[in-house]
Specification:
Helix content of chain A: 25-40%
Largest interface: A-B, 29 and 24 residues
Oligomer: heterodimer
Structural class of chain B: alpha/beta
Family (chain A): Belongs to the ABC transporter superfamily. Ycf16 family.
Protein name (chain A): Fe-S cluster assembly ATPase SufC
Structural class of chain A: alpha/beta
InterPro entries (chain A): AAA+_ATPase, ABC_transporter-like_ATP-bd, FeS-cluster_ATPase_SufC, P-loop_NTPase
Keywords (chain A): ATP-binding, Nucleotide-binding
Order of helices and strands of chain B: HHHEEEHHEEEEEEEEEEEEEEEEHHH
Largest sheet of chain B: 10 strands, mixed
Largest sheet of chain A: 6 strands, mixed
Radius of gyration of chain B: 21 Å
Pfam families (chain A): ABC_tran
CATH superfamily of chain A: P-loop containing nucleotide triphosphate hydrolases
Strand content of chain B: 35-45%
Chain lengths: 251, 423
């Protein structure tokens, strides 16, 4: 489903190269974890997948279902089913969360040639999804993410993911800033989305999240490249011995 | 020193002054009104149109900007438009002539032309000061309008809508309104024009008696070749509350002045302004609010959206008299600049003579946040729609303060129409 080939990318503004020859392949139905120390390029990778303009791809390609997505803007990628759950979701004053959900869901439906959702149906879906994430509907009347706690923001991201039903989910450090209860709720939300036709890429610094979202594959990112891949036992090894050992092996 | 003598008259000055001798015979009014008109046109003759050298017109060099005066056109009249809020009581003026007024309990409508003919309105034609161009032009040429009296204690369920329609041609009107003690009303001043070349002036006078609460909305939707001068004057009695909401959504050259005097203790004035500026228009909102007794409050928030080559101006002056202790006055002017060729000038001023007050002001200019845009697009919202959503959010924060759902929806519709035309 996702094929990243020899990807090189840099910060558009100052030319700093962050991704240096990254290869990664994720199949439909797979949950892939990307782990790495700070500064290894994890968040950059997530932004590049979502199409953020601040980064420039200088070499290589990103194929999604066999087609390059490099020429698509973020909205076009989202319409094709790519979803990024942000590490730091933006606060947007003046846009009510509910209104935002309506606009986003209907923009994607229009893009796929489907009818827009009527308000009662939309409300029903939102209520159901919010209930599963233990979110208060009153929160959704507030401006998007404004005044939400760290945990509330992460839940709101997963809520959006549930409602938009993407095919490729990229979770960028979804565990950061979550207490253990919130972590469980969010993980259950993600696990409920596991399905044979959906791929999930979990980016994380710590192994903790992977106790709850058990990955099929684990990839270690260092200096903009995948230096080691393995199954979930690789994550446990990292937890026990730290990154130094694997970095040493790869060097 | 006399700085007014040296400059030759501009074509617009000539047109304004020459037209007076042609029009004066047809203008309504008794001898007192005729004297007031004459005084006004003489002042205009001596001073001419204000240039940037006149401080209150510094950012709106009217002498340079006002090039062509749309001539009077007896055929420019039009029918009243549908009110902003269905069920409103409408009193309309078209092409300078009062048409019909609806009926509402506790409200008396009188044609202003009758008050000019009998002379009772003559004292109100006096200009505010020597730089009061709007007062001069309007006093010289005013033909009609509606005089509205809201009885003491009247609480109007439906809004009153005062319409000034100037599809093309030229017209000058006034709307004097008295809101009686403890009265409550929402008043919509609708400044509406078409696509033809037009020049109009409109002056409102509002007296808010003790304990009355008024929401007044000025909604301006003019075409790309329309020049309009507006002036809103209000006096607030004891514990009176006035919320003035200005929406500028069209016009080639617009100046809207607001002059409010909080002269009753416990009175409160709220100004909310939304300037939606596009094309190569020039729009100026100039406000003075005077706090002249103890314990009065005011807050002014102006939000501007600038596209194309549009230029906007907000001048806000808060004056606090020496005896006006415990005044609380705040002013903010925020601009969203959507094009490199747009411009907005904000000039906040505080003139404080009392020593126990809380006053402040701030101004910001920003572009659309790339972070916000990316976030919305990452959820599948196409760029144009995402930008629209962010612009709407910027302005909607202010609209939603009105807390009247029907009114909020009506104004948001106007915002969306403007955005789809200029987005």
């Amino acid at each position: 489903m996702l094929e990243i080939k020899n990807l090189h990318a840099r910060i558009a503004e100052d030319g700093t190269e962050i991704i240096r020859g990254l290869n990664l392949s994720v199949k439909a139905g797979e949950v892939a974890a990307i782990m790495g120390p700070n500064g290894s390029g994890k968040s950059t990778l997530s932004y590049i997948l979502a199409g953020r303009e601040d980064y420039e791809v200088t070499e290589g390609d990103i194929l999604y279902n066999g087609e390059s997505i490099l020429g698509l803007d973020p909205a076009e990628r989202a319409a094709k089913g790519i979803f990024l759950a942000f590490q730091y979701p933006m606060e947007i004053p003046g846009v009510a969360t509910m209104e935002f959900l309506k606009v986003a869901i209907n923009a994607q439906r229009r893009g796929r040639g489907e009818d827009e959702l009527k308000i009662p149906e939309l409300l029903k879906r939102v209520k159901e999804a919010a209930g599963l994430l233990s979110m208060d509907m009153a929160m959704l009347k507030r401006p998007l993410n404004v005044g939400f706690s760290g945990g509330e923001k992460k839940r709101a991201e997963i809520l959006q993911m549930k409602l938009l039903e993407p095919k490729l989910c990229v979770l960028d450090e979804t565990d950061s800033g979550l207490d253990i209860d919130a972590l469980k709720i969010v993980s259950e939300g993600v696990n409920a989305l596991r399905s044979p036709d959906r791929a999930i890429v979990v980016i994380t610094h710590y192994q903790r999240l992977l106790d709850y979202i058990v990955p099929d594959s684990v990839h270690v990112l260092y200096k903009g490249r995948v230096i080691k891949s393995g199954d979930k036992t690789l994550a446990q090894r990292l937890e026990e011995n730290g990154y130094a050992e694997i970095i040493g092996e790869a060097a | 020193m006399n700085i007014h003598t040296s400059q030759p008259r501009t074509p617009a000055e000539t047109a304004l002054i020459d037209a007076f001798s042609e029009r004066v015979g047809d203008l309504p009014g008794n001898a007192d009104v005729a004297i007031a008109r004459d005084t006004a046109i003489e002042a205009l003759k001596i001073q001419g149109l204000p240039s940037r050298r006149i401080e209150s017109w510094h950012y709106t060099d009217f002498r340079t900007l006002f090039r062509s005066v749309a001539p009077f056109d007896a055929a420019a009249g039009s029918q009243p438009v549908a009110p902003l809020i269905a069920g409103s009581t409408v009193a309309a003026v078209s092409n300078g002539t009062a048409m019909s007024a609806g009926q509402a309990d506790g409200v008396t409508f009188e044609k202003l032309s009758e008050k000019l003919v009998d002379g009772t309105f003559a004292p109100a034609l006096a200009t505010r000061s020597t730089d009061d161009l709007i007062g001069q032009i309007n006093a010289a040429y005013v033909t009609d309008g509606w005089h509205v009296d809201i009885a003491d204690g009247a609480e109007l369920e439906a809004p009153l809508e005062l319409q000034n329609l100037q599809q093309s041609g030229q017209g000058h009107v006034r709307f004097p309104v008295r809101a009686g003690r403890q009265a409550k009303a929402t008043i919509i001043e609708r400044q509406s024009g078409g696509e033809g070349e037009a020049f109009s002036s409109s002056i409102s006078h509002l007296t808010v008696a003790d304990g009355a609460e008024i929401i007044w909305i000025i909604l301006r939707q003019h075409g790309d070749t329309s020049v309009q001068l507006g002036q809103f004057n209000a006096w607030l009695g004891k514990d009176a509350k006035l919320t003035l909401f200005i929406v500028n959504a069209g016009g080639k050259l617009v100046r809207q002045e607001v002059h409010v005097l909080a002269k009753g203790e416990g009175s409160d004035f709220q100004l909310r302004g939304i300037n939606l500026l596009g094309g190569d228009s020039h729009t100026d909102v100039t406000m003075t609010v005077g706090h002249v007794v103890e314990n009065t409050t005011s807050t002014e928030i102006v939000r501007n959206v600038v596209t194309g080559r549009a230029r906007g101006v907000f001048q806000g002056m808060i004056r606090v008299a020496k005896i006006a202790q415990k005044t609380d006055a705040r002013m903010a002017c925020n601009t969203l600049l959507l094009s490199d060729d747009g411009e907005f000038d904000a000039k906040p001023e505080l003139e404080i003579f009392a020593d126990d007050v809380a006053c402040g002001h701030g101004a910001t200019v920003a572009e659309i946040s790339q972070d916000h845009l990316f976030y919305l697009m990452a959820r599948g919202i196409p760029e144009k729609e995402a930008r629209g959503l962010l612009v709407k959010a910027f302005v909607a924060e202010v609209i939603e303060e009105l807390e009247n759902e029907t009114l909020v929806e009506a104004l948001e519709d106007i915002l969306e129409d403007w955005l789809s035309a200029h987005g």
